Amino acid sequence: MAHKKAAGAAKNLRDSQPKYRGIKLFGGQKAVAWNIIVRQNGSKYECGANTYLASDFSIHAATDGIVMFKQKNFKRFDGRTYLKTVVYVAPEAEVKAEKKAPAKKAAPKAEAKKEEKVEAKEEKKEVKAEKKATTEKKAPAKKTTTAAKKPAATKTATKKAPAKKATKAE
Question: What string of DSSP letters covers the chain?
């Protein structure tokens, strides 16, 4: 008989603390200096302007501004290129200036493109009209049937003049 009660061994009850990784400030949000923008393991996201990389690979804002993300080509040691996301902080004054300036510049470009499209359509219409004017409509060719054709010359019994006989001069 057993002297001790059987007890199960609990080996699976340990768990590590969560790391809470991921993006903390998204594109377009305001960042204060020293704010954490991205918590990551390894360098999935690269540091851009006004940011720095901490020892645990988290990206922090170095200055106040607005968080921005962009894709950039990087070259590996073996020569292959690949896209990587770069995180940077743009000063608010620059972002406001960019928002105002392109809106004014974009409108004339859009209008110019629309005008070019309209002009191109008009030119196409003119070319089509010229082609129609130059090509005259011809009357359809008359269909001829075998009965309507003139009968071919048939051999008729005609008397030929007798051939001249060669006469020998003696």
Answer: --SS-------S---PPP---EESS-TT-EE-TT-EEEE-SSSSEEE-TTEEE-TTS-EEESSSEEEEEEEEEEE-TTS-EEEEEEEEEE-HHHHHHHHHHHHHHHHHHHHHHHHHHHHHHHHHHHHHHHHHHHSPPPPPPPP--TTTSPPPPPP---PPPPPPPPPPP-
| 123-132 burial code (b ≥16 CB/10 A, e <16) | eeeeeeeeee
Residue 167 has pLDDT above 80, yes or no: no
Cβ proximity of 42 and 16 under 8 Å: no
pLDDT in tens, 41-50: 999 999 999 9
Please give the structure tokens belonging to residue 110: 């859009």
Supply the pTM of this predicted model: 0.52
User: Residue 22: what pLDDT?
Assistant: 97
